[in-house]
Design a protein that fits this description.
two-stranded antiparallel ribbon; alpha/beta; 5-stranded mixed β-sheet; 5 helices
Length: about 200
């Protein structure tokens, strides 16, 4: 089964493809099919993921899967949330992982509460008008350290410290990260949903 991934992010593609592979799912990034990025005007991960999946399905005629994910920092009232990808630009840095990490650490300078969570919502649709989208969620709690550590992963991985592991996400192997990460949790849920609700009908 071919699904269009409503993202051009190579990190997301690799992580999701690894988890969905046992179902025989082949993910095609929307950038390979000339699909422009969808507007993401909503304030929740679920609404934005639905919008992105519908947009990709509409443009390609293929079933689509979309992930909307972000960092929710306790001291910031849950922000940056859905604005995670553009977080750095609010503080004069260029959009991107390095700017995001730098801005986050600067904004948390002197803040005692370092609790945060990475949250992922996955939505899969058979068509743009599918009345029964599959929805899976994952959440990984941790602490924001004083400085980044590790060279693996992407996004905020170098500053998501897992107390039970004594390491940041960026210090884990790809397999270990997939086991615990927010996106890994959501994608494993999605595998079970697809198996039960899509593949059992084929």
């Amino acid at each position: 089964m071919k699904l269009v991934l409503a993202s051009g992010n190579p990190g997301k593609l690799a992580e999701l493809q690894a988890t969905l592979a046992p179902l025989g799912v082949v993910l095609i990034p929307q950038s390979d099919l000339g699909v422009p990025e969808a507007p993401e005007p909503h304030c929740t991960f679920l609404e934005n993921a639905l919008a992105k999946a519908r947009h990709a399905a509409q443009h390609t005629g293929l079933p689509a899967i979309a992930d909307d994910a972000g960092l929710c920092v306790e001291a910031f009232g849950g922000l940056p949330g859905v604005d995670t990808a553009h977080y750095a630009t609010q503080f004069g840095y260029p959009k991107g992982d390095a700017g995001n990490v730098r801005a986050l650490l600067e904004q948390l300078d002197g803040v005692a509460d370092r609790r945060a969570a990475l949250v992922s919502t996955l939505v899969a649709l058979r068509s743009p008008t599918d009345p029964q989208p599959l929805v899976a969620t994952g959440r990984l709690s941790g602490l924001i350290p004083l400085e980044p550590k590790g060279s693996g992963g992407f996004g905020f991985d170098p500053v998501m410290y897992l107390t039970e592991r004594g390491l940041t996400l960026a210090e884990l192997s790809a397999a270990d990260k997939n086991e615990v990460s927010h996106r890994g949790q959501a994608s494993r849920q999605m595998v079970e949903l697809m198996r039960a609700q899509w593949l059992s009908l084929s």
